[in-house]
Amino acid sequence: MRLGAHVSVAGGLENAIPWALEIEADTFQMFSKNQRQWIAKPLTEEEIRAFKEPLSKTNLGPLMIHDSYLINMGSPDEAKGKRAQVAFLEEYHRCEALGVEYLNFHPGSHTHPKKLMRDDKKTRYDALERIASHMNKTLEETKGYKSKLVIENAAGQGTNVGIKFEEIRHIIDHIDKKERVGVCIDTQHAWASGYDWKNKFNEIWDDFGDTIGMDYLVALHLNDSKSDLGSRVDRHDNIGMGKLGKETFKSFMQEKRLEHLAGYLETPGGPEMWKPEIAVLRKLSEE
Description:
The chain is an alpha/beta fold. The protein has a single domain (2-286), classed as TIM Barrel. Helices cover 40% and strands 16% of the residues. It has 9 helices and 12 strands. The strands form 3 sheets. It has an 8-stranded parallel beta barrel with strand order 1-2-3-4-6-8-9-12. It is globular, with a radius of gyration of 18 Å.
């Protein structure tokens, strides 16, 4: 597995590259703009070149951009949905312009105000179909793009959808150009949504293969968990320090079905923690 982390782009997108090299990563994830803002100025040719040229002198990759946390393509509100569509398309333009392989995104939320409707199947599946519709519009407007749209499983907080493999499959079933779509599994989100990595590791991947298909899996977010199994609380912890534990990550690193993937840390502590965590994960793969 090619290992990296979500590194900072403070001061310029190109600054992600030395950060990745500093932590001895094989790859990295980043934001392509301020993740707390809807709008960003279009990338200039100079900015694109400043990123691509130093990157070409490394062996880093495949890279992943994480889209803005503001985007919710599952919203039933027409105006909010349109705003999400525009922002998502902009993220995709930036990803393709930078030559980054993957645009990773959280599916979204159905936002129903009644708590009793949180897990109502029709409410959830309507949101999943809205997400697929937005993705289809984005794909239709970007013919020829090589970057993949990568669906990340959610932890299940609030009215999040896309928390179970069946829900991710439902999105994919409604996508017209399936070859341009991938999946990233966040280990902490899966744990929080009820997937017991500690006791049912092989069964979970069998389920993924049967439900979604291993061909769709392009990456992992490698995060331990501060929250309990099935808690639906999104709280990451450092590798081996949370509820999953080091032995679970040994399973991830030694699983043949995962060895071709990119694995990105989104754990607390920044570069000072990521460098030793990457070293630990590499050691686990060899034990």
